[in-house]
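Hi R.,

As promised on Friday, here is the backbone we talked about, encoded as structure tokens. Could you run it through your design pipeline when you get a chance and send me back a sequence?
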């Protein structure tokens, strides 16, 4: 969802003071979307994002058009009714959904602009926002890396905010801050994970086409310049020509990168894999059999974060099916990592 979120944030930054941004801040029971889902309602009638399957949007839009809202207000929507007129009927919603609606004033837009700027730098950002109703923009703090960005915040900063290190990250949602006896909303915005693909052969093309729909920044690297063309990889975010005899000279692989090796050249795969094992990566996928990967490592044990053969075991055949199996494994690994969150009481 990071790509969609980045696109939505960019639209919020460009919004005007007659537009509103709505965020699900708390759910009691079940709902189609969870805390952190956002939607922009523009004065010209355009909408961006999604909160539900239509249960909430029309009501919110009507309230905005009739000017029934404060500059910042939390609205509860009870979706538990099971009669034919109930909002939650067959919608996947069976709970109470609390939606924070804020006018896109200059300060609100500035806050989301700061979040977007940090994401573009590859930084994870956690938003701490005071939940109050009224005619003033909500006070909030952004936690990015080792620094705090204050926006209209007055008074004491909660100690857990200053000490927060995002390991493990907090779950999106509201909670009562006992320290200051107030309600805060927490939301974490994550940058796109980078997927580095070694190899630009024909079987990489369908893989890039599929991954482009997901939350990854795609970097395709190869030493064969003729393969690294815009025609072949128009959907890749970046292409890099590397030196065959010095593969990592201009390439800085980060510890949180996802890496796939599929050059189809044994010696090159061996050099790449040995170089990558010097880093603290969480995911390396190697195309080929277990026996081939064992030979790449010259008898050394295969680390648990090296997936070989790459992809989910769905008996895939051919480039397209293999690409699907690889994407399934990437999704599984990425989402498993994101679910390692903690609830703040």
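Update: got your reply. Pasting your designed sequence below so it's all in one thread:
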């Amino acid at each position: 969802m990071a790509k969609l979120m980045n696109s939505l944030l960019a639209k919020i930054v460009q919004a005007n003071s007659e537009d509103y941004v709505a965020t699900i801040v708390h759910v009691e029971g079940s709902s189609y979307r969870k805390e952190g889902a956002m939607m922009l309602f523009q004065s010209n009638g355009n909408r961006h994002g999604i909160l539900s399957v239509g249960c909430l949007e029309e009501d919110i839009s009507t309230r905005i058009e009739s000017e029934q809202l404060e500059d910042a207000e939390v609205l509860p929507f009870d979706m538990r009714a099971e009669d034919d007129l109930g909002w939650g009927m067959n919608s996947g919603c069976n709970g109470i959904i609390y939606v924070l609606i804020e006018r896109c004033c200059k300060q609100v837009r500035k806050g989301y602009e700061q979040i977007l700027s940090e994401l573009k730098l590859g930084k994870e950002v956690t938003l701490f926002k005071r939940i109050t109703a009224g005619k003033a923009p909500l006070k909030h703090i952004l936690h990015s890396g080792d620094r705090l960005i204050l926006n209209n915040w007055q008074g004491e900063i909660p100690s857990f905010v200053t000490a927060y290190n995002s390991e493990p990250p907090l779950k999106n949602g509201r909670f009562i801050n006992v320290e200051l006896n107030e309600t805060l909303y927490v939301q974490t915005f994550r940058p796109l994970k980078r997927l580095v693909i070694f190899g630009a052969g024909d079987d990489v093309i369908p893989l890039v086409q599929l991954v482009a729909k997901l939350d990854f920044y795609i970097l395709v690297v190869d030493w064969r310049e003729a393969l690294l063309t815009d025609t072949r990889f128009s959907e890749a975010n970046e292409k890099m020509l590397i030196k065959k005899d010095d593969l990592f000279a201009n390439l800085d692989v980060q510890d949180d990168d996802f890496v796939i090796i599929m050059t189809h050249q044994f010696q090159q795969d061996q050099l790449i894999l040995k170089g990558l094992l010097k880093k603290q990566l969480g995911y390396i996928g190697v195309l080929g059999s277990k026996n081939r990967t064992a030979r790449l490592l010259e008898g050394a044990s295969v680390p648990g974060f090296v997936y070989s053969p790459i992809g989910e075991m769905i008996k895939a055949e051919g480039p397209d099916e293999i690409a699907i199996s690889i994407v399934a494994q990437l999704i599984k690994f990425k989402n498993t990592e994101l679910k390692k969150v903690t609830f703040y009481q």
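One thing I noticed while checking it: Residues 83-91, 339-345 have pLDDT under 50 and may be disordered.

Thanks again,
M.
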